[in-house]
Amino acid sequence: MRLTAKQTTTRTLTDLLRALDNRHAVTITYVDSKGDTTIRTIEIAEVHAKTDDYQIVAMCRLRNEQMKTDPTIRTAQRDFDLSRIVSYTVHRIAYVLTRPEPTTYERPAPAPADDADALYIYELERDPDDADYRPRKRLTQSQTDLAA
Question: Is the pTM for the entire model greater than 0.85?
């Protein structure tokens, strides 16, 4: 067990990123926003930089067990602030939880390969901001006066 108060944030972050790379579970002692201390075993998925801190996105094994008994818990994925981790232990145990697929991404239809106009329309529809843009006149490569 490593105490985060006795080492630098860089060292703690390095150990947690190494656990992420090797897909090893980590047991942390964590102080939540209410001031309660909990011990959780997590499987780190991502690390994001925040202002003056780092946010660790992980699957929580404790929350996964609670999901089986409490239907209000939707996912075992949770965010942890690095500054609130009191101590941690990196295990050699591999990940066992499956991370949920993102729900906001919609896979686009495959691009047409045979028609140039259909491909043009397809590319415009992929970007909703420029979908209404149509050039007023056809431009050629020799028109250098319109160059930005």
Answer: no
